[in-house]
Design brief:
mainly alpha, two-stranded parallel ribbon, single chain, about 180 residues, elongated, about 10% strand
Length: about 180
């Protein structure tokens, strides 16, 4: 349910396009057929620290929001989830190797030190929030791929039926997913 809060808040930032008739147009369907040959979008954080801007980080959030909408929204399938997981894995790796992370890991709690050159408090916050959103999206995508059924508001095109065996919680420990033994 955390994704509802995270991505619901992001929806408020999406621009609506008026079709001229006073009505807003429907969102066009996205083809996520198996074997899709879509390329992985370039990593938005694959830049030097000097090239990372607030505008660039906001664009990264927009790309992440679009990726999650296209591949993990109300209707999803394994091919779309796998595409999104591969894209997100690439983005997370680049974020993990960003020069700021090394600088920030050298900070000692309880000490006061100036931020690295070119890193403002606003940039630091936006960069940290983006990394947190990447981690949350990774959990959502992997959990959605793990659950092979349709339940509640999420429809799996490749598993359209509700399965009573899935009336359990999904437990995540590290990179391992499993069903709880207790039925809900």
């Amino acid at each position: 349910m955390l994704e509802c809060l995270v991505y619901g808040a992001e929806l408020a930032n999406l621009p609506l396009q008026n079709q001229g008739s006073g009505e807003f147009g429907a969102i066009p369907p996205v083809s996520l057929a198996a074997g899709s040959d879509r390329e992985t979008p370039p990593s938005p954080l694959a830049t030097s620290s000097a090239e990372t801007t607030l505008h660039g980080l906001e664009a990264c959030r927009g790309q992440l929001t679009q990726l999650m909408w296209d591949c993990a929204a109300i209707s999803r399938n394994q091919a779309g989830l796998e595409h999104a997981m591969a894209t997100l894995t690439h983005w997370r790796q680049d974020a993990h190797h960003h020069p700021w992370l090394h600088d920030l890991k050298t900070l000692v709690p309880g000490t006061v030190r100036p931020l690295p050159q070119g890193l403002s408090p606003e940039l630091l916050r936006a960069w940290g929030e983006l990394r947190n959103l990447y981690d949350t999206a990774w959990l959502v995508l992997n959990s959605a791929a793990f659950r092979t059924e349709s339940r509640g508001g999420h429809f799996r095109a490749d598993y359209p039926q509700t399965d009573p065996a899935w009336q359990s919680h999904t437990l995540v420990e590290g990179a391992q997913w499993r069903k709880s033994e207790a039925q809900i």
